Amino acid sequence: xxxxxxxxxxxxxxxxxxxxxxxxxxxxxxxxxxxxxxxxxxxxxxxxxxxxxxxxxxxxxxxxxxxxxxxxxxxxxxxxxxxxxxxxxxxxxxxxxxxxxxxxxxxxxxxxxxxxxxxxxxxxxxxxxxxxxxxxxxxxxxxxxxxxxxxxxxxxxxxxxxxxxxxxxxxxxxxxxxxxxxxxxxxxxxxxxxxxxxxxxxxxxxxxxxxxxxxxxxxxxxxxxxxxxxxxxxxxxxxxxxxxxxxxxxxxxxxxxxxxxxxxxxxxxxxxxxxxxxxxxxxxxxxxxxxxxxxxxxxxx
Length: 301
Known about the structure:
Blueprint: E1 4-10, E2 13-18, H1 19-41, H2 46-72, H3 74-79, H4 94-112, H5 116-141, E3 156-157, E4 166-170, E5 177-181, E6 191-192, H6 195-215, H7 222-239, H8 257-276, H9 290-297
Antiparallel strand pairs: 1-2, 3-4, 4-5, 5-6
Helix pairs in contact: 1-2, 1-5, 2-4, 4-5, 5-6, 5-7, 6-7, 7-8
């Protein structure tokens, strides 16, 4: 749709600035901002969160990259393992980043004395917020699109005819929108389901719902459990309408990689509820640095 925002000419050749990279940067930025504000409210030292962000970003990119190559294009990875480090060539799978970053941040939290359940409840919804931005990047890049379908008569184009990146069509029945991309990294010049936009809207909805749960949670772990369950329900639905060629292995003739992973993710969410719901919310208070606490307790004249 609009994969390259700007191309800069340098002494080493042309350097493209991609829309996907911009949206991923915004995704991490928005997740960090929201997490930072919420962490302090439950008693987590925001200074310790800096390490959490670094671990989550690095492991998130590594996990997403690794799952993509091992499950979707293993032949490409084993033929040229160094492609793993050429991030600008694309190739990321959300579940891989989500799982590896989740494990890494939990281990880091334990090392730093951070309550793991409270941290998970803080970060869980922000992952969905980041995904909402990230899928807009996929839409602009033309990847992760849906299956091809016939555009119904009377569909209304939403972009100007002068826009060379493609077109988005609207009509009055399901699926309500159709996407046609030119110069993208997926299928071009055909009408497909805009599954990236659906996933962005779903992720934003999950963020909003679980943010409400976070405010009124009855036990530690409730929020991350809700994130796991809701997304594991949504992802297989969206996955069934995907049509890009790189979908991962076809397990048992029934599941793609992401659909199969959704099963243990849902089970993990249910187990968290069963294990944690009787424990309630551990005592917490807004975090204050020592100097702030001293100032707050000093008499005012």
